[in-house]
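[#protein-structures] MJ: dropping EFHD2 protein here for a structure pass
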Amino acid sequence: ARPRGGAERGGAERGRHPGTMAAEELAGRRGRAPEPGPGPGSAGGRGGLEGSPGGARRVFSPAGEFREFSRRQLRDMERLFRQYDAGKDGFIDLMELKLMMEKLGAPQTHLGLKNMIKEVDEDLDSKLSFREFLLIFRKAAAGELQEDSGLHALARLSEIDVSTEGVKGAKNFFEAKVQAIHDSSRFEEEIKAEQVEKKKQAEELKQRKAAFKELQSTFKQ
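AK: finished. structure tokens for EFHD2 protein:
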């Protein structure tokens, strides 16, 4: 004879509509812990997932939404974002932003950093997604950032030229970057001088090796 418990379960299952069972099974699958989120969407056109205040997630295409920037500009912004996304979770949090501003030579107070995030934090999660990071440069190119603000300093010192034709305020933003470019020229000159010195040393080493081989052949004769 079948166990009573099994019969009861079997009867209960026969009494449930197949659609109800499928829905419950699907809900069970969805009850698993979420997978880690991906990084920022590729500037080359492949979208990434971005959160929204309601919890829904949508595909984000940088090239599609930020058409005022060239693909090269978007790649430069993505490279900068990934450089300071130390946790590699697709976001720049307050501590990562703190390090970023220190590296750029414009350190901010704790309150200043919070205000920087707040100005572009559309989903109110207190950190910067890649899309929100791009909003900084959109605002900078449109002349919508206060000159003494942390976001203006970030955009000005990042060495990403967003002076795109047709963008309001882009000319002024480009002019504001001239000083930052001038400050970096000395560094570039030092790099070039170092490259010339390395080339010179390599040539001298080559000549010494040739002279040594010639000396060896003389002794062997």
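MJ: nice. The radius of gyration is 29 Å.
AK: one more thing. The chain is about 60% helix and 5% strand.
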